[in-house]
Amino acid sequence: MRAVIPILILLVMVSGTSFGQILQTTSSVDAETYMLWLTRDWNGLIRTGNEALKQGIDFHYLRYRMGIAWYEKGNYHQAVRHFKSAWKSDPEDELLKEYLYYALRFSGRDHEAARMEDTFSRQTRRRLGLSESRNPQRVYLTYSHNSGAPSSVVERVDTATPVEGFQSVSRGYHLINAGVEHRLGSRLWLHHSYTHLQRSFYFFQNDGGQQFQNPDDKIYVNQYYLGATGLLKDGLDVRLGFHFIHLLDYQNRTSSFGGRQRLVSAAVTDQNFAGFASVHRRSRLLTTSLTFYTGNLNNAVQYQQDVAVILYPFGNLNLYSTSVLSHQSEKTADGNWRNQQVLQQGLGLKLAGRFWVEADAAFGEIRHFFANDGAVVYNAPESVRRKYGATLHTVLSTHLLLRLDYVFTDNQSEFVAVETGVPIPEPIDYQTNSFTLTILWKR
């Protein structure tokens, strides 16, 4: 008998624990979350909802209310998760679609928001001030200026070297870029961009023992970019693109005149390209992507792979970090392969209602490099050893945004010899600054 009593006590304790774990029912959760919603107790609603979901209790209005609770707390990533679950069971609820639409917009998921906008009734579109036309989705115009190297850097070029070859030092550039994004069907977006760049540089060449210097050489670049984004399903898209680069340069050529050798300037054109394919996956707090590039910049062949992770710790755009790890393999004109890794790290922060600031840095050798799904191409002859930047985003109106960028780069200019294996002058390090202004209109 003495052995039975402890067993009975243990059974009562276990039974009591079991009853405590199944106190919630669908009806009790519905009533409790409704009262919490009425009193705007968002923390209590989320806590009760999570406990119910753990016990397998899941229904339309529970997800609806949890979505509103997260939305009111500013965690739009979590709000999207619950609103989507509720929308599947009632796809005709206009208010629910409106909540989901804005949660997607405030999460930076514009393509999915555009898909949701397609489901709105005409009355909802009119009430929200949305245009009947779906195009264009966004239009932007950019101007950028780079200061180039100080004059003292040019004086460090070894113009007495006996090695045949050339060397250049950037004297800055001016860049104008214009782009537009529009829809082509319900799940496809096209992005067109044109860039004109005029770069000035100091150029030195030793050709057959004859030295030539041009303190203000110029190269003119015209670029066309075409990118396509296809939304496979919610939270998953693929992107394909092509970047065509046309260069016009005036290079020195040796010619004979009157029995004497001399250097003359001749117009030379060149065409480069870059292509890419990427996959982007968005989850509750993370956006991950994998991108593959190929190109033929400056008479070489490049293959590059990027792995990127964007973290939203609070489920919104108030704070986010971006990490991109790149591996590049390049086959140069002499048949040798060069491998390099570059790490790019960024941090974004909301300063006030209409202002965001971003800071970013890149570590590793940036030479013949691709970024931002192929929209940015580093094809200058100099390499970037370090790069730091800061960006200020300003919301001017519902559809108009202004962006100011500052970038500091630590560059290296190298002498390019005609023959390999010969001693060449030491590389020259120098710093440049660039400022960029972008004005963006978006639907």
- The CATH superfamily of the largest domain appears as Outer membrane protein transport protein (OMPP1/FadL/TodX)
Distance between the termini: 79 Å
Shape: elongated
Kindly provide the name of the CATH class of the largest domain.
Answer: Mainly Beta
Number of domains: 2
Taken as a percent bin, the fraction of beta residues is over 45%
Largest sheet: 14 strands, antiparallel, barrel
Q: Helix share of residues?
A: 10-25%
- Secondary-structure-based class equals alpha+beta
Radius of gyration: 30 Å
The count of strands amounts to: 17
Total DSSP helices? 9
Order of the strands making up the biggest sheet: 1-2-3-4-5-6-7-8-9-10-11-14-15-17
Q: What is the CATH T-level topology of the largest domain?
A: Porin
> Mean pLDDT score, rounded?
88
Low-confidence stretches: 1-22
Describe the protein in words.
This protein has 443 residues and is an alpha+beta fold. The chain folds into two domains: 110 residues, Tetratricopeptide repeat domain (Serine Threonine Protein Phosphatase 5, Tetratricopeptide repeat); 305 residues, Beta Barrel (Porin). Helix content is 23%, strand content 52%. The protein contains nine helices and 17 strands. Strands 1-2-3-4-5-6-7-8-9-10-11-14-15-17 form a 14-stranded antiparallel beta barrel. Helix 2 runs antiparallel to helix 3, helix 4 packs antiparallel against helix 5 and helix 6 packs antiparallel against helix 7. The longest helix is centred in the first third of the chain and has 18 residues. The protein is elongated and about 90 Å long. It starts with a helix and ends with a strand.
